[in-house]
Amino acid sequence: MDKIIDRFLVLEGLDGAGTTTQKERLKAELERMGYEVCTTFEPTDGEIGRLIRKVLKGDLIIPELSLAHLFASDRANHIYGKDGIVENVRRNKIVISDRYFYSTLAYQSFSLDMEKIRQINDFPHPQYLIFIDTDPHTCIERINSRGQEKEIYEKENLLREIRDKYLKAFENLPDKVKLITIDGSLSIEDTTKSILAKLSF
Questions:
Q1: Which among 142, 151, 136 has a CA at the least distance from the CA of 52?
Q2: Domain-located, residue 61
Q3: Comparing C-alpha atoms, which of 70, 109, 113, 46 is closest to residue 62?
Q4: DSSP state, residue 151
Q5: 120 CB contacts (<8 Å, ≥6 apart)?
Q6: 169 assigned to some structural domain
Q7: Which tens digits make up the pLDDT trace of 82-124?
Q8: Is 147 left (phi over 0), alpha (psi -120 to 50) or beta?
């Protein structure tokens, strides 16, 4: 699908890249500038999203194709459901999402054909797609510092492959999608500044 959702901004990156931190910082800065902002994330905290998180933690094992369909179902609710992305954009809010279907393309194309995943995820693109390009070794160091149980993809060798798959996922984006690649070695503050400098609503 080549449809674009205006005022919709997506943050993508490897686990540990800092997308969640930037989501909250961007919200605060944009609100300070006078915009109304709604933040969200995928998988969502809905019932399907919670089921997906069990799979990612390794607590539930299902076929990869089933997981892909779960992601797509969760995403459809996220976009079109009550208080979803489309509804908030119609309220003239800027919506910032920590991850979107590009994550699915990158992470699930280990065992599934990427084009098959694209077909399952025939959803609108965001106006802004921000990729925080962080070295996988740095990501693993950050993940380890959290002291939390790792998810199934949080291994350095896998993250290196996932980065390559992200780059492939970004090929042939619709012309109206503004892809912004940010150097993941920048400080938190400089990352926020770099993103804001490229936004215009």
A1: 151
A2: no
A3: 70
A4: P
A5: 68, 69, 72
A6: yes
A7: 999 999 999 999 999 999 999 999 989 988 999 999 999 999 9
A8: left
